[in-house]
Amino acid sequence: MSHTETEIPTPKTNPTQEPEVLKAERSNLGMLRPDHNKSVIIDWLTTVDHKKIGIMYGAIALFFLLVGGLEALIIRTQLAVPENDLISAQRYNQLFTMHGTTMIFLAVMPLNAAFFNFLVPLQIGARDVAFPRINSLSLWTFVAGAIVINFGWLLQALEVMGLFEAKGATAGMTDLVPAGGWFGYAPLTSTDFSGAGTDFWIMGLQILGIASLSASMNFIVTIINMRAPGMKMMRLPVFTWMTLVTSLLIVFAFPAITVALGQLMFDRVWNTNFFNVAGGGQPILWQHLFWIFGHPEVYILVLPAMGMISEVLPTFSKKPLFGYSIVVFSGAVIGFLGFAVWSHHMFTTGLGKVATAAFSLLTMAIAVPTGVKIFNWVGTLWGGRVRFSAPMIFALGFVWMFMMGGFSGIMHAAAPADAQQQDSYFVIAHFHYVIMGGIFLALVSGIYYWMPKVFGKMWVGNLSTWVAVLVVVGLNVTFFPMHFLGLLGMPRRTHTYLEGFGWETYNMVCTIGAYVLAVGILLLLVDMVRCIRKGTPAGNDPWNARTLEWSTTSPPQAYNFAKTPVIPARDALWEHKYGPENRRITYEEDHGHGVHMPSQSWMPLIASIGFIPLGLGMSMMQAGVPFMGYVAIFGLVVVCVGLALWALEGPGGYHLHPEEG
Amino acid sequence: MAHIEENPLPVAADTGPLNSETAKYHTFVNLALALAAITGVELVLVYIPFHPVFILSVLLALSLFKFIAVIAWFMHLIYDKLLLTLAFGTGMAIATGTFVALGFLMSPSNVDFEAITQF
Amino acid sequence: MSNTADHADSHSSLVVDNKKLLMWLFLGSDCMFFGTLISTHLIYRKLYPDSFEPTTLFSLELTSFSTFILLMSSFLMALAVSAMHKGQLKSFRRNTLGVIFFGLIFLGCQVYEFAHFVHEDLTLQTNTFGSTFYMMTGTHGVHVAIGIFWLICMYFYSHTGKMDAHESAVDVEVAGLYWHFVDIVWIVIFTAVYLVEFIPEI
User: Fold this and answer.
1) How far apart are CA B72 and CA B19, in angstroms?
2) Three-class DSSP category at A566
3) Which one of C6, C9, C125, C142 makes the best mutation probe of the A interface by having the most chain A beta carbons within 10 Å?
4) 10 Å Cβ neighbour count for A569?
5) Number of CB atoms found within 10 A of residue A37's CB
6) Which residues, 6 or more positions from A343, have their beta carbon under 8 angstroms from its beta carbon?
7) For residue C105, what is the domain's CATH number?
8) How far apart are CA A465 and CA A476, in angstroms?
9) Which among C71, C165, C177 has the least Cβ separation from residue B12?
10) Which letter, b or e, does each residue of B52-63 get, where b requires 16 or more Cβ atoms within 10 Å of its Cβ?
11) Is the pLDDT at B23 greater than 60, yes or no?
12) A296 and chain C: CB distance < 8 Å anywhere?
């Protein structure tokens, strides 16, 4: 493979020359732009580079993965033996709520976003995303939302120490961390039953929604508009396709939860009647609105994972993806059908016969495109020259484990069976097989596959084998017994249980499995750190891969591609390396114009920071903290000022002139 | 931006033929008159003692026309690329489908009023 | 914001302007947003048909007037966008001022309406009708207010001399799309929330 690499122009800038040539210009407001800053911190805070933003998304997501994992371990430790009193029921409620919320919104979604950010512009041959500053806003708004949603822990710690007491609308309520489940079913979230924790949850999710929406719209525009010449839609790498479908799902699903959260906020702050039973409100409406968002959310989590698998399997089978177009089409169908099945989360609420039958059938129908994808992945392996490198091991694990989660999913689609399984550990087993066995293994596969591109360092040693063994064994030991626990009738969300139901052994096994899993994940982090610190130089294309991102340097330069590539075929790099002469990647001549780079900016960061006082002010006002209304208004002003200055400063930009080496 | 210095004055040269803008102007005027007239008709219609189902159907048809007309002409959708229609249409279709399904699921015949203590 | 058109990084697959596509996606998303709000209102209205009689409160004359005003502002907005495409800055300013003026009249009508309803004892807390009605029309009003603010900024920006025909025409067009969307949402609300209440026996 190396003999062809020389044909790809390797971009190199002369780093010693750069600072002398490039000086930061003044914006339309007359302020100096933070370009070419010597301070690393300022550079990363104001960056609009999709690669740096992606790395930050990834680092923060991994941090929250650990936080969510720690919460899970405390839950499992509490449940290890019957009638355990390690933590109180209230603390248990807070832990499972924050475990779910953290894992979905602060770990898996941003980890997906990390891959979107880093890979999509590279895979389509673009210099950056369509709106680099909006991309920066998405990142920092996500951070603001994460801070708001987790701030309750600090307040709760003060409360435990006797330094804080809720007054005002939630006077006397002691739960200052969200405790209503990640779905926040009404009327448990009303001020009658829950404290300021729910307000942190509402404001935090609302802010995270802004981050997700702005990021997704950005990616849709990027994928449609920023493709390199010749990169037709049906030549896009499958991961990019799945990014597009996921982004569309976010754009159309998030407004439902935005409205539902707004109505809940009105109920809590202004005593309206949306979900207030005494005033005629229907709590079931919350369930509908939540799952109108919540079910597409499931596909928002899993489709990027499917995309990663569709990249890894062909590379390590030395074969093109079997049935590319049908895989893409299936992904789109899954996304579309995802909007028509939400009520299968509500079979036991009494929807009526027609509705139950309709949603049951539609849910089963989703198994068809999903099954098509699995057969296509198996078809990709068939007759291929399979290499069992680290990414491949995890990808194969995904196919198997995800299938198991899918099977129990089809069992839930049958409404009578679901009536038995609802709210039992069987459901927990199902979605943890999908999320841990499916999405998480795919993300680890993606980490092993693309980290050499991100940092330019190749993995050393064979720790990945240990990670694979521990994670796969750990997750099966943890979650498989939960099927039995569910069938034996153990309900979800109970902080302890009595002896004599036959649940003791299974629970102990689950807890042991959880610790095995935790060791596996810690080893993964150790391996990542070792790769970054001691890895050998990766070179452009360490895996003999197929897609465009492997044709540029590792790590890619700020401008990605020194010259715009012209794409002659699907699997562009593979065709370039092994295909006929007319399928080589060519490069557009830039006639000395250089690569136009967007200027960095403080404004997205400032606007995002404003969300922190806004969210915290609104929430703590509910706990009766004085002056919090003013803090919220201050936050809103900061957001508006940030956006206004953003509009006025002008996009700026400068040119880089990469020399070919 | 860098090109501001290059053309400091607003120029029309690169924005297409002026004739099409003039043609659009007449379309806009006609449409505005039609929209105003339809709103007047709607206002009168609800007071006329026709059959309610008939009135409702006509109202829905008229507002649908207003809705589509504003999108098509004022928002330039018929002059623009199909892609934009798809982007908006997908959202509109999902919203309409959700609205219909939700209306069915939450219709009075499907809600157990016994369970509601007050009201 | 975008780096389109005249930069080295604009690729040949660029089919629609970045900002326009972004705005249309936002509007598609906003459809779902208002769809949910209107759904909530109509569902509760149908569930409790006798809890509240809006015809005693609604003034169809006032609402028809504000609908008319909003439709005309949409017309002026279309003219403003057209003027910007032709590079006629004066015409753009005149029409934009008209849009802002009509938008303010609409908001004034809404404020009057809200004040009147509250005076007649329909508040956010009264019943589900009050909650859903105020939240839905209030959210629409906030959209109108944001639109007015946006256009006022555009109007003043047009006096700085920094507007250029190419990029600014797209900016104005995007603001226009937003304004028209606010208008079509009102078209739906006018029929589904106000007019149908006056049909006898429905």
Assistant:
1) 19
2) strand
3) C9
4) 18
5) 17
6) A288, A291, A351, A355, A356, A359, B105
7) 1.20.120.80
8) 17
9) C165
10) eeebbeebeebb
11) yes
12) no
* Out of C13, C28, C33, closest to residue A229 by CB: C13
What residues are paired with A596 via a beta bridge?
A655
CB A481 within 8 A of CB A70: no
What is the mean pLDDT of the segment spanning A90-96?
A: 96
| Model confidence pLDDT, tens digit, residues A285-344 | 999 999 999 999 999 999 999 999 999 999 999 999 999 999 999 999 999 999 999 999
CA distances to A290, A299, B88, C151 from A295, rounded to whole Å, are 9, 7, 21, 38
Question: Residue C4 falls within a domain, yes or no?
Answer: no
Q: How far is CA B53 from CA A32, A511, B49, C199, in A?
A: 65, 62, 11, 9
Q: Do B74 and C75 touch (CB under 8 A)?
A: yes
Q: Which domain holds residue C146?
A: 18-49+59-198
Answer yes or no: is C193 within a domain. yes
**Residue A566 backbone dihedrals phi, psi, to 5 degrees:** -110, 120
Can you tell me the distance from the alpha carbon of B73 to that of C78, in angstroms, rounded to the nearest whole number?
A: 9
Q: What is the pLDDT of residues A215-274, one digit of tens each?
A: 999 999 999 999 999 999 999 999 999 999 999 999 999 999 999 999 999 999 999 999
C17 backbone dihedrals φ, ψ, rounded to 5°: -60, 140
Give residue-wise pLDDT tens across range A585-599: 999 887 777 888 999
Burial of A540 (0-12, 13-18, 19+ CB in 10 A): buried
Instruction: Give Cβ neighbours of residue C189 (< 8 Å, ≥ 6 apart).
Output: C38, C136, C137, C140
Per-residue tokens: B4:
């501001």
Per the CB < 8 A criterion, the answer to whether A376 and A321 are in contact is: yes
Do the beta carbons of residue A474 and residue A517 sit within 8 Å? yes
How far is residue A653's CA from residue B1's CA, in Å, rounded to a whole number?
A: 8
Cβ within 8 Å, pair B21-C82: yes
* In contact, A562 and A11? CB cutoff 8 Å: yes
Residues 6+ apart with CB under 8 A from A375: none
- Enter the ipTM: 0.93
Among A486-495, A553-562, B106-115, C76-85, the range scoring the smallest mean pLDDT is B106-115
- The closest CB to that of C166, out of B14, B18, B96, belongs to B14
Name the residue with higher pLDDT: C51 or A370: A370
Q: Give contacts of A285 with chain B, Cβ < 8 Å.
A: 106
A632: how many CB neighbours lie within 10 A of its CB? Answer: 20
For residues A597 and A653, the answer to whether their CB atoms sit within 8 Å is yes
Q: What is the pLDDT of residue A263?
A: 96
pLDDT of residue A350: 86
pTM above 0.90, yes or no: yes
Subunits in contact with chain C (3 or more CB pairs closer than 8 Å): A, B
> How confident is the model over A414-440, as a mean pLDDT?
95
Q: How many domains, chain C?
A: 1
- CA A517-A521-A524 angle, to 5 degrees, is 140
Structure confidence at residue A565 (pLDDT): 94
Report CA torsion sign: A374, A379, A383, A389: negative
Least confident interval from A343-352, A588-597, B94-103: A588-597
- A241 CB contacts (<8 Å, ≥6 apart)? A307, A328, A331
Q: How many CB atoms lie within 10 A of CB A217?
A: 27
The predicted pLDDT at position C4 comes to: 36
**Per-residue confidence at A38, pLDDT binned at 50, 70, 90?**
confident
**Beta-bridge mates of residue A586:** A566
Interior CA angle at C65 toward C63 and C69, to 5°?
115
Among the listed residues A49, A171, A62, the one whose alpha carbon sits nearest the alpha carbon of residue A110: A62
